[in-house]
Amino acid sequence: MSPLGFVAIVGSDDAAVSSLQFLLEASGYVAFGYGSVGSFLADAHTGPRCVIVDHQVPHTDGIDLVAKLRSAGHGIPVLLITSGPARDIIARATAVGIAHVLVKPPAGDEIVSFVEALS
Description:
Blueprint: E1 7-10, H1 14-26, E2 31-34, H2 37-43, E3 50-54, E4 56-57, E5 60-61, H3 62-71, E6 78-82, H4 87-95, E7 100-103, H5 108-116
Parallel strand pairs: 1-2, 1-3, 3-6, 6-7
Antiparallel strand pairs: 4-5
């Protein structure tokens, strides 16, 4: 499988980020983990194929990160992972163009399917 850009994983739980990174790399993708929104934004110009982001990240949330990306003109596909699919979270996610929301813990095949669908 030839990756078209890398998969960016943004979350504050190092073990969860590492686990997702391992899953994607074992599936043939290049994946980079970021422990903060700031570290991801410093790298975002390098062109990730998609972003997998936890709803709860330090100093902001995953939806706010996507809103910043959208306002800067980035239409990067995003998968949001949340501890609970509350209606307000789904509404905010939809408003910024997040079409995929999974509840923790996400199944590995759902993560891989999201990335595969972008190929």
